[in-house]
Amino acid sequence: MPWIYLLLAGVFEIGFAIGLKYTEGFTRLWPSVGTVVSAAISLWLLTQALRAIPVGTAYAIWTGIGAVGVAVLGIALFSESASPARLACIAVIVAGVIGLKLTSAA
């Protein structure tokens, strides 16, 4: 169950980061509310995962899921660069997250 909490925390982290773009500096009410709620849920889920997963592993995976998700959605939603170099860097992050999961004792 801790790994499910961590995965969901990462998903809500993506929602938080993407939501920041839509808040327009927290001047738009509903995107701001959604962003704050997403951040709170993400942090709560992360704390639940930390009960069983080492903090270094959990934090790295949480930020990795967020970074990859935001980068992919940035390409899809905001026409950000999908250059081969950028995609290769995203792949390295994914490989690191998988490696941390496979080598974790929890």
TrEMBL record:
Coiled coil: none annotated. This is Guanidinium exporter. The keyword Secreted does not apply. The keyword Lipid metabolism does not apply. NCBIfam families: PRK11431.1. PANTHER family: GUANIDINIUM EXPORTER, SMR FAMILY PROTON-DEPENDENT DRUG EFFLUX TRANSPORTER SUGE. Keywords: Cell membrane, Membrane, Transmembrane, Transmembrane helix, Transport. Belongs to the drug/metabolite transporter (DMT) superfamily. Small multidrug resistance (SMR) (TC 2.A.7.1) family. Gdx/SugE subfamily. Pfam families: Multi_Drug_Res. It is a multi-pass membrane protein. It comes from Pseudoxanthomonas sacheonensis. It comes from the Bacteria.
